[in-house]
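call fold(seq) -> tokens
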Amino acid sequence: QVQLVESGGGLVQAGGSLRLSCAASGSIVSRYGMSWHRQAPGKQRELVAIITSSGGTIYADSVKGRFTISRDDYKNTLYLQMSSLKSEDTAVYYCRIGALNSWGQGTQVTVSS
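ret:
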């Protein structure tokens, strides 16, 4: 069974940056599309960004131009570089491999205004 472990969350001031990581067990990062999702308190989980197996990327309108999804196939790790953070980006962030319906445990991002 695939395991996904997120890290890199924390407390940051508005306008700051963070980089989230999602380490996958096994050499699978390049074989599947992967995505980042987030869930704010009292809200539904929402898609943030997708990277396809061929490297194409798609972003939610709310993060376009501020967030960048990428992966390192040798490290079997997915990343989310977040810049110009806003208070509304506060949420628990999860990585996912949709084809395997695998989720990480989440990492908290809190943006103070």
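The first strand starts at residue 4 and ends at 7.
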